[in-house]
Specification:
Order of helices and strands: HH
Structural class: mainly alpha
Distance between the termini: 43 Å
Number of strands: 0
Number of domains: 1
Number of helices: 2
Strand content: under 5%
C-alpha cells in the first residue's frame, strides 16, 4: 500500500525572509529586556535576580540571532 503524503510532510526550505525574521526577533527581544528592566522597580529582590538572569539569557540569544543574521545576509548576498 502506498503511503500518502499529508500534513506531516516538511515544507520546502524557504530562506528568503530569514533576515527580516531575525531582525524582528532581535527587536522584540530588546523590547522584552527593556520592559523587564522597567518592571524591576516594582519587584522584590528575588524577582529582580530572576529578571537579571533572564535578561542575561536574552542578551546571549541576541548575540546568536545577530550571528545568524550575519550568516543569512551573507548567504542571501551570495545567492543573488
Amino acid at each position: 500500500m502506498a503511503q500518502k503524503r499529508g500534513k506531516n510532510t516538511p515544507n520546502p526550505d524557504n530562506r528568503s525572509d530569514n533576515v527580516q525574521k531575525l531582525q524582528k526577533m532581535v527587536h522584540n527581544t530588546l523590547e522584552n529586556i527593556e520592559a523587564a528592566e522597567e518592571s524591576m522597580i516594582f519587584s522584590s529582590e528575588k524577582q529582580k535576580n530572576a529578571i537579571k538572569a533572564k535578561n542575561e539569557r536574552r542578551r546571549e540569544s541576541i548575540e546568536g540571532f545577530r550571528e545568524e543574521l550575519h550568516d543569512e545576509a551573507a548567504a542571501k548576498k551570495n545567492s543573488d
